[in-house]
Specification:
Order of helices and strands: HHHHHHHHHHHHH
Number of domains: 2
Distance between the termini: 15 Å
Largest sheet: none
Length: 224
């Protein structure tokens, strides 16, 4: 189990097909242009999975070296690197979750638990969650909220505000999101977020399709 997915288990071909099927932002459209040709060039460098690609593009210097080696442009590889790294999103800071009480944040802070990956190790399993409850004086409901925060925050682009919206909806775990249709998810979140109560951004139906698909990249290993 782990907060992040194992990039070595996503093949280069799977990653390519994900790019083909996604509605990318205008700035990302370069990733779809000549995608088969470009990925064949990458594969010739003995790169077979996403972890190997991430390592090949790990730094700006490596991106430059890879560009010189393959003939792929710096612009293309820079955007590709950003997309690869998005599969391991930045840790979310516990202090940024609006739904948690100041008391809860303070207790976690004192135990040096400041980010969702750190918290995940303490709440994903029931036995660990019970230990945290005893140690910090949380009740079962508070501990479950912490587990759900970590669970949904593993999905790409789910920030603290959107995670808080999910926690107040019918789809407060990765498993529930996985079993939802995009339309069910959209309708419920719009209703729960009436007057932008939790999330100030726009809730887009296409984004809900992306969110449901993203659950395929997350292990259902949080115990409830």
């Amino acid at each position: 189990m782990g907060y992040y997915i194992d990039l070595s288990k996503m093949s280069l071909n799977e990653f390519k097909e994900n790019l083909k099927s996604r509605n990318l932002l205008p700035s990302q459209q370069i990733l779809k242009k000549d995608v088969d040709k470009n990925f064949n060039v990458i594969k010739k460098q003995n790169i077979e999975n996403l972890h190997q690609l991430q390592q090949a593009l790990k730094t700006k210097n490596k991106v430059k070296e890879f560009s010189d080696l393959t003939g792929l442009t710096l612009d293309y590889l820079t955007i590709l690197r950003r997309e690869v790294n998005s599969y391991h999103p930045q840790p979310r800071k516990i202090k940024d979750f609006p739904g948690l009480s100041p008391s809860t944040k303070e207790k976690l802070e004192k135990k040096d638990i400041k980010t969702t990956p750190q918290l995940y190790q303490k709440v994903a399993l029931k036995t660990d969650r019970d230990e945290l409850k005893k140690e910090l004086g949380f009740n079962e409901e508070e501990a479950l909220v912490l587990a759900k925060i970590c669970d949904v925050s593993r999905l790409r682009y789910v920030n603290p505000a959107f995670a808080t919206l999910l926690l107040n909806s019918d789809f407060d775990t990765v498993e529930k999101i996985k079993n939802a249709t995009p339309d069910e998810l959209y309708q419920n979140l719009v209703k729960v977020n009436e007057n932008k109560k939790y999330y100030k951004g726009r809730i887009n139906p296409k984004d809900m399709e992306f969110l449901v698909n993203e659950t395929l990249n997350v292990l259902l290993d949080v115990e409830y």
